[in-house]
Specification:
Layout: E1 2-4, H1 19-54, H2 64-105, E2 109-112, E3 116-118, E4 123-126, E5 135-141, E6 147-153, E7 160-162, E8 175-185, E9 188-194, E10 196-207, E11 210-215, E12 220-222, E13 228-230
Antiparallel strand pairs: 1-7, 2-10, 2-13, 3-8, 4-7, 4-10, 5-6, 5-8, 8-9, 10-11, 11-12
């Protein structure tokens, strides 16, 4: 059975239906430790250079250019160590930010054209029909693809609730259901499209450059296919 209500803004009713911080702190500690190590190594290097100068053969002294090469080499190594530490800290921060973003998806209800797991609780839909349709119906299919319900949709309503009960008032079995909107004109079907439905995000993960979301029915979709989000009821 489909019921409709006036939907408050921002999908709030559908009714007429410190990871990043921790990463920064870790990077700061790591960089500070490396700086102290570099400072200690530089002092050791200067002492060794001084001893080398004091004990050189006076009849065959080391050319001053050799000292310059040693200083330049140490300076280059020092700079490379600092650069590596900076890149590592930035990588930690970016990784923490990505994890925070994933955590923000989990537990939310995503609006997408995808099946929804039904457990007896009403399912909120945002059906869309053809602009030139004079009638529309919501077609509900079970996981086997069989039609279990075909109900008239009021034109002009942007949100409806599928109560999950048949004409006798009996609740449909728990399972996965998909929703389609059939648009009619003069009694003929002119368009059939998957309906937008809210489904709980159970898992979010990164795959290459994409974020994949596992929905309540177990299917996975790309986050780019989500057209709306709301907090669970």
């Amino acid at each position: 059975m489909v019921t409709t209500q006036v939907a408050p803004p921002a999908y709030s009713g559908l009714a007429s239906e410190k990871t990043s911080t921790n990463a920064s702190a870790t990077g700061a500690v790591s960089t500070g430790t490396s700086n102290r190590e570099i400072s200690s190594d530089f002092e050791t290097f200067l002492r060794m250079l001084t001893v080398q100068m004091q004990n050189q053969d006076p009849l065959n002294p080391v050319d001053s250019s050799d000292y310059a090469v040693q200083l330049a080499t140490f300076s280059s190594v020092e700079q490379q160590v600092l650069t590596n530490d900076l890149l590592r800290a930035l990588g930690d921060q970016m990784g923490g930010g990505a994890l925070s973003q994933l955590a923000g998806w989990v537990g939310m209800e995503a609006l997408a054209r995808a099946p929804v797991a039904f457990d007896g609780s009403p399912i909120h839909l945002r059906p869309e029909h053809a602009s030139d349709a004079d009638a529309a119906k919501l077609v509900v299919r079970d996981s086997a693809g069989s039609v279990v319900s075909r109900e008239t949709l009021p034109l002009g309503e942007d949100s409806v609730i599928w109560a999950g009960v048949d004409a006798t008032g009996a609740t449909y079995p728990s399972g996965t259901y998909s929703f389609e909107v059939e648009s009619y004109q003069s009694g003929k079907v002119i368009e059939s499209t998957a309906a937008l439905a809210f489904s709980t995000v159970q898992e979010a993960r990164i795959s290459g450059e994409k974020i994949l979301l596992r929905l309540s029915d177990g299917s996975e979709i790309e986050s780019t296919l989500v057209t709306g989000m709301r907090a669970p009821d």
